[in-house]
Specification:
It comes from Belliella pelovolcani. This protein has a domain of about 200 residues. Helices cover about 40% and strands about 25% of the residues. The chain is built from 10 helices and 14 strands. Strands 1, 2, 3, 4, 5, 6, 7, 8, 9, 10, 11, 12, 13 and 14 form a 14-stranded mixed sheet that branches. The radius of gyration is 29 Å and the shape is elongated.
Length: about 400
């Protein structure tokens, strides 16, 4: 089957985002996303866990639409946020991916030696001493010739790379590799092989045609440790993709299973990903099964969910300004920790004698980000969302959405 990312899916009038990375699409940079945060700012986001980098591209205040252009320009702000994991959220272990560093494929060929060669030739034209004239002329000509040879070699490398990188799964074999790469140096082959491995594995996922990893390892000169990290990273990316629209199909599950088998993914990694897949499947199944009450509260309201959890808020830990850029160190702070519950009337948390509940009728949006271990519930007439973290975050989100639909 072809592997692709479908459009979003709504369970009902409430949007519940169940992607592993929250709202976002690829920004062309590995690990980076474009998105919109809870304050309506568009941003570029990169990084996973511990620290992340986020650059806000600006906020447009609709109340200023009738103001003059100068005020509109002033309303556009540029912030850079550094998010610190304060350890208050429950993060799925399976989100973490190995860091894969791939060297640049192409090396820029400068013109320094070409310019120097031309200068030497020009100088030689104005020197009367024949021996010096010939020496400078030959040296200049050799530099020009050397530069041209390097450029021709670089052009040939580009052409070879273009042919190899676009090979279909059924063409990814030692015969094609040898046919195109035999004239390259060992260093060039090793550099190109890393990029071929990445491109070929991604192509296998896209085409739904997974090859035995030992087949590629047998002829591509790539370090085994680097290739293993690349495989794990792509495998986790594939799982993230099938979960991004929370419409996990049997065909997608079969493709993931084939990757696990043929790419020889380590069993502990497979088990962690399968746990996450199962959580998403349970949320989806929950939308099509009756929701049963587990009890009643003192007011006689039906209780549908109870579990431990935390009520958090996102705040600026510290900030500074440099070169006209405003930097903010962001992190979650704890408001309350205790028992989360969802009834047919409200959801909230109880800590000893302290309680904080919010009417279900005020819910406008539910945003689940498994990557950060939180769910943001947006309420009417409230600027900042209610932020919840729990070891049963998936169930909490699914039940809350089901109650809203009911």
């Amino acid at each position: 089957m072809a592997f692709y990312l479908r459009k979003g899916f709504n369970f009902g009038p409430i949007r519940i985002n169940l992607s592993k990375s929250g709202l976002g699409v690829s920004a062309g940079v590995k690990g980076a996303r474009l998105g919109v945060n809870s304050r309506g700012q568009s941003y570029v986001h990169g990084g996973r866990h511990g620290l992340y980098y986020r650059k806000n591209l600006g906020t447009i205040n609709p109340q200023n639409k009738n103001s003059n252009p100068t005020n509109n320009k002033a309303s556009l702000t540029e912030d850079e946020e550094i998010f610190t994991d304060t350890g208050l959220t429950y993060l799925p272990r399976s989100i973490e991916k190995p860091i894969v560093t791939i060297p640049p494929l192409f090396v820029k060929v400068g013109n320094t030696k070409l310019v120097l060669g031309i200068v030497l030739i020009l100088i030689a034209l104005f020197i009367s001493d024949i021996s010096i004239k010939i020496g400078l002329g030959l040296l200049g000509a050799s530099l020009v010739f050397w530069n041209q040879q390097v450029k021709n070699k670089s052009k040939k490398f580009h052409q070879t790379a273009a042919l190899l990188l676009k090979l279909e799964p059924d063409q990814q074999n030692s015969q094609n590799w040898q046919a195109h790469a035999h004239s390259l140096t060992t260093a060039e082959q090793e550099r190109l092989a890393i990029h071929c491995a990445s491109a070929w594995l991604e192509k296998q996922i896209q085409e739904g045609s997974i090859l035995e990893i030992d087949h590629i390892k047998s002829f591509l000169p790539v370090a085994s440790t680097l290739l293993d990290k690349m495989i794990i990273s792509l495998y986790k990316d594939a799982v993230e993709t099938v979960l991004a629209d929370h419409q996990l199909t049997e065909e997608e599950e079969a493709l993931i299973s084939e990757m696990e088998k043929k790419w020889k993914i380590a069993p502990p990694i497979v088990q962690e990903e399968k746990k996450l897949i199962e959580k998403f499947r349970q949320i989806r199944n929950m939308q099509f099964t009756p929701l049963l009450a587990i009890g009643q509260n003192d007011s006689g309201d039906q209780i549908y969910f109870e579990s431990e959890g935390r009520l958090l808020h996102l705040r600026v830990l510290d900030s500074w300004q440099q070169n006209r850029v405003r930097y903010k160190n962001m992190g979650y702070k704890l408001d309350m920790e205790g028992k989360l519950s969802i009834s047919d009337k409200a959801f909230g948390i109880t800590e000893g004698r302290n309680t904080r509940f919010y009417p279900n009728s005020q819910i406008e949006d539910i945003f689940l980000s498994a990557e950060y271990g939180v769910v943001e519930i947006f309420l009417k007439n409230r600027k900042s969302p209610v932020i919840i973290s729990s070891p049963t975050l998936f169930e909490f989100s699914g039940v809350l959405n089901k109650v809203i639909e009911s």
